[in-house]
Here is the input.
Amino acid sequence: MEHLDNFDDLRRDPDPIRRGQRASILLAQYQQQATELARIRRLAIEEAHRDRGMSYTEIATALGLSKGRITQIRKTDAILPDANIPGDPS
Here is the structure.
């Protein structure tokens, strides 16, 4: 996997300043990806509920999450605006 190569290369970088700079860049990229993934997951939960008629309990079971976590995702992630996700009609 490419990201593992990034980590291995980063760990081997002998220059501590460059290593720190590279780590900062990767952290920013991964944080952006995590935010985007949270949006995608929230939209998938709502789509499964709306379009497939699944209950949130059924969705929780299918995703391997607790019903409480689904509720948290719906409430907490709902404050995040939807991003332009490829293939998402919103």
Remarks:
- DSSP finds four helices and no strands in the chain.
- Residues 83-90 have pLDDT under 50 and may be disordered.
- The radius of gyration is 18 Å.
- Residues 18-78 form one domain.
